[in-house]
């Protein structure tokens, strides 16, 4: 009785959305990969929205860049 048409839009759900504008993100190959960083995520709202995210195991890495001040890493590291 239950016509279980489990949507083929499933793929659609999987695609992460831009936290800024709500558009879908897309995975983009980097031109110059660094340290296994072969892809990144860009917003399909580009160029209106220029949000990009690092690719982490096939998913965009949303990280908060909000709070400045605390947790400033490596301040004045004197490497030579
Ligand atoms: Zn966006």
From the N-terminal CA to the C-terminal CA, the straight-line distance is 71 Å
Number of extended strands: 4
Bound molecules: zinc ion
From the spread of the alpha carbons, the general shape counts as: extended
Number of helix segments? 1
Major beta sheet summary:
4 strands, antiparallel
Give a description of the structure.
The chain has 80 residues and is mostly beta strands. It contains 1 helix and 4 strands, in the order H-E-E-E-E. It has one helix at residues 10-14, and strands at 25-34, 37-43, 52-56, 59-61. A 4-stranded antiparallel β-sheet has the order 1-2-3-4, with no helix packed on it. Strand 3 and strand 4 form a beta hairpin. The longest helix has 5 residues, at 10-14. The radius of gyration is 18 Å and the shape is extended. The termini are far apart. The mean pLDDT is 78. The site of zinc ion has 8 residues, from loops. This is Topoisomerase DNA-binding C4 zinc finger domain-containing protein. It comes from Enterobacter agglomerans (Erwinia herbicola). Keywords: DNA-binding.
Provide a concise account of the structure shown.
With 80 residues, the protein is mostly beta strands. The chain has one helix spanning 10-14; strands at residues 25-34, 37-43, 52-56, 59-61.
């Amino acid at each position: 009785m239950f016509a279980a048409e489990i949507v083929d839009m499933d793929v659609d759900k999987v695609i992460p959305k831009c936290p800024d504008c709500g558009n879908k993100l897309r995975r983009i190959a980097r031109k110059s990969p660094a340290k296994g960083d072969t892809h990144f995520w860009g917003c399909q709202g580009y160029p209106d929205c220029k949000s990009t995210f690092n690719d982490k195991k096939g998913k965009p890495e949303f990280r908060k860049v909000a709070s400045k001040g605390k947790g400033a890493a490596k301040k004045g590291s004197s490497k030579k």
